[in-house]
Amino acid sequence: MTPSRDISRLIEIMEQLRTPGTGCPWDLEQTFASIAPYTVEESYEVADAIARNDLIDLCDELGDLLLQVVFHARMAEEQDAFSFGDVVEAITRKMIRRHPHVFPDGSGYIASSDVKGTWERIKAEEKAERAARKPMKEAPASSLLTGIKAGQPALARAIALQQKASTVGFDWNDPRAVLDKIREEADEIEAALDHGDKSDIASETGDLMFALVNLARHVDADPEMALRGANAKFERRFAYIEQALVARNRSLEEATLKEMDALWNEAKEREKEGSFRIPISS
Predict the structure, then answer these.
(1) Are 218 and 172 contacting, i.e. CB atoms less than 8 angstroms apart?
(2) Most C-beta atoms within 10 A of its C-beta, which of 61, 82, 93, 273?
(3) Which residues contact 231 (CB under 8 A, 6 or more apart)?
(4) Cα 235 to Cα 255: distance, rounded to the nearest angstrom
């Protein structure tokens, strides 16, 4: 098997990886649900490469994202649901239909704002058609939250849900009340830990995260940016630990947790004093 510029080669590779007996054990164990987090992760890595204007990385990350599409399509084909070809046909049909000013005969220039309006109108038509093709189900009860898009990242959707609920007064008036809720959720995690139920622990952890997003909203902090800042802070302080150990001719593996904690606190104090510097080994 050799590399190729032909998409069929990637499809063949995935088929081999998913072949029982001769394929890859890890790939064979995967399901739509287990692969979904990787799909989301690859999307973010594409966005990160774009933000860094790194076109070499972008090429690589787009390949990783394409692999996710091929992976999902292969698992669906194994269930006789659809194939990669069906995915391509569906998106090509959609793009042609949503650009009537270009396809099939190209009726000429229209303003960008008009393109968006046409796109949304046709998208709504397609949604109605899909709903009509599906088996009849009892109509879901109307909800204030129905319009909140399910496909958003969890942090963004949590904010949207909370903001929507707040429009009818379902909200706290004081950030300190949210802090009380955070403490309550932390206590519930502790109780769940005592029982040792992983599902319950995960559920309570989600409740705590939702409450933390609520706090960020009440203090006018973007939770995504706040978490990015915390990530950067962690990286900076951990780098301090690594370089301080190098200066002492010690490795991370040799260091004790107590020693690393002391260096972490040292980095933290130096940040407060404005004298933060990564130690340089001699």
Answers:
(1) yes
(2) 61
(3) none
(4) 18
| pLDDT at residue 129, as a whole number | 79
Contact 182, 215 (CB under 8 A): yes
- The secondary element (H helix, E strand) that includes residue 232 is helix 223-247
Q: What crossing angle do the helices spanning 257-273 and 223-247 adopt, rounded to 10°?
A: 120
**Where exactly are the structural domains of the chain?**
7-98, 154-221, 224-273
Evaluate whether 7-98 and 154-221 have a shared fold: yes
The mean of the pLDDT values for the chain is: 89
Whether CATH 1.10.10.10 fits 154-221: no
Closest residue by Cα to residue 186 from 164, 210, 170, 165: 210
Global model pTM greater than 0.85: no
Work out the number of other CB atoms within 10 angstroms of the CB of residue 118.
15
- Preceding omega of 100 cis (within 30 degrees of 0): no
Q: How far apart are CA 238 and CA 236, in angstroms?
A: 6
Scanning the chain, the segments in alpha helix (DSSP H) are: 7-17, 25-29, 32-51, 55-78, 84-98, 112-133, 154-166, 175-195, 198-218, 223-247, 257-273
Exposed e or buried b per residue across 253-267, where buried means at least 16 C-beta atoms within 10 angstroms of its C-beta: eebeeeebeebbebb
Dump pLDDT digits (tens) for 221-234.
Answer: 999 889 989 999 99
Higher-confidence position of 145 and 106: 145
Kindly report the CATH number that applies to the domain delimited by 7-98: 1.10.287.1080
